[in-house]
């Protein structure tokens, strides 16, 4: 499904078509769940958050001005929900987990290196980790990331640059040079 | 613990009831009508007993509370989608027109004046709702044709 399909889906929802919400959830529930799981680091908080996210999406979608921005808009809602929940619960920054990197179809010889990468990703500061997760795992564009993170594109680029550099340094220390 | 697609579809389906949206729209319109009628009586009747004035003020406060509650529900909880806005707009126009006709029939001119204002606002809401619906439908057709 491409971005035109997403825009069409958003418009059908804005029109109030019940089946469109089923399609929207079928399409985006899993990506949002995995994103929440990575941000929160535990299933329970992610499960509580995902319900809030869908209710907020339902209630705010009539006001979404540019339906083509659906994906970035939903991830920004998800991020805000998690930040609010974690702020309330623990008053500490969220922990982004890289446990969910999918290892299916990965050649056996890469698994050790991926395991090291997961560990090193976990050790990055949360802001850098989040940037890498959104860009590489969620495949958001820089423009979409500015909307989700609420920072200018220059800041997104500098976070990505810093995160890549730090991760590369950490990986080289562990003997991973890909 | 995982939350399935079906769980979320069920949750959202429960939030999409047209009936409850129509009910809240009707509540809003009726409460607004009560506030306007009683308010115009309070302002225009010259020699009401003080107890009646207090009673009218209480009724207006209650009616306005219902207006505020229904408005909050319709903008924050049971939000209106483009199709629902047309239904709500039509309800508002029909209710306001009936309201004005009723006020004119019993010669409550102040209330009729406020009713006419409500009718004008309702027509504006309906026109905006139709324009929005049409714009979304045009974009939908364009995307489906791609």
The Cα radius of gyration of chain B reads 20 Å
Major sheet attributes of chain B: none
Uncertain parts of chain B = none
Oligomer: heterodimer
Number of DSSP helical runs of chain A: 8
Q: Fraction of residues of chain B in helices?
A: over 70%
Shape of chain B: elongated
The value of Rg of chain A in angstroms is 17 Å
Order of helices and strands of chain A: HHHHHHHH
Mean pLDDT of chain B: 93
**Greatest chain-chain contact:** A-B, 30 and 27 residues
Helix/strand structural class of chain B: mainly alpha
Order of helices and strands of chain B: HHHHH
Distance between the termini of chain B: 40 Å
Assign an overall shape of chain A: elongated
Number of distinct beta strands of chain B: 0
Question: What percentage of the residues of chain A does DSSP assign to strands (E)?
Answer: under 5%
Tell me the fraction of residues in β-strands of chain B, as a range.
Answer: under 5%
What is the end-to-end distance of chain A? Answer: 31 Å
Describe the structure.
The complex is a heterodimer of chains A (178) and B (146). Chain A has 178 residues and is an all-alpha fold. Helices cover 74% and strands 0% of the residues of chain A. Chain A contains eight helices and no strands. Chain A is elongated. Mean pLDDT of chain A is 82; it is low at 100-104. Chain B is mainly alpha-helical. Helix content of chain B is 87%, strand content 0%. Chains A and B meet through helix 1, helix 2 and helix 3 of A and helix 1, helix 4 and helix 5 of B.
Summarize the topology.
The complex is a heterodimer of chains A (about 180) and B (about 150).
Chain A: H1 3-15, H2 18-40, H3 43-60, H4 70-89, H5 108-123, H6 126-137, H7 142-149, H8 153-173
Helix pairs in contact in A: 1-2, 2-3, 2-4, 3-4, 4-7, 6-8, 7-8
Chain B: H1 5-15, H2 18-44, H3 50-77, H4 82-105, H5 109-145
Helix pairs in contact in B: 2-3, 2-4, 2-5, 4-5
């Amino acid at each position: 499904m491409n971005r035109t399909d997403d825009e069409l889906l958003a418009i059908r929802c804005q029109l109030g078509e019940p089946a469109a919400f089923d399609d929207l959830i079928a399409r985006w529930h899993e990506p949002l769940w995995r994103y929440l799981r990575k941000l929160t680091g535990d299933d329970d908080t992610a499960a509580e958050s995902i319900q809030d996210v869908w209710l907020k999406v339902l209630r705010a979608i009539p006001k979404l001005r540019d339906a083509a921005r659906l994906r970035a808009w939903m991830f920004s809602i998800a991020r805000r929900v998690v930040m609010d929940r974690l702020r309330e619960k623990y008053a500490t920054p969220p922990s982004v987990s890289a446990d969910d990197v999918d290892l299916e179809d990965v050649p056996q010889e890469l698994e050790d290196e991926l395991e090291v990468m997961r560990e090193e990703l976990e050790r990055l500061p949360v802001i850098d980790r989040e940037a890498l997760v959104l860009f590489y795992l969620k495949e958001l564009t820089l423009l979409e990331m500015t909307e989700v993170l609420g920072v200018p594109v220059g800041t997104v680029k500098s976070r990505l640059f810093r995160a890549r550099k730090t991760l590369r340094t950490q990986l080289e220390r562990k003997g991973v040079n890909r | 613990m995982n939350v399935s697609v079906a769980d979320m579809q069920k949750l959202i389906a429960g939030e999409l009831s047209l009936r409850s949206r129509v009910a809240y729209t009707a509540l809003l319109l009726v409460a607004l009508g009560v506030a306007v009628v009683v308010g115009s009586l309070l302002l225009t009747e010259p020699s009401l007993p003080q107890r009646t004035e207090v009673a009218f003020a209480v009724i207006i406060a209650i009616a306005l509370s219902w207006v505020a509650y229904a408005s909050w529900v319709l903008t924050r909880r049971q939000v209106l989608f483009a199709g629902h806005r047309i239904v709500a707009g039509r309800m508002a126009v029909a209710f306001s027109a009936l309201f004005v006709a009723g006020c004119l029939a019993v010669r409550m001119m102040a209330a009729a004046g406020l009713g006419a204002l409500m009718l004008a606002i309702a027509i504006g809401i309906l026109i905006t709702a139709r324009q929005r619906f049409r714009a979304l439908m045009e974009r939908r057709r364009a995307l489906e044709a791609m």
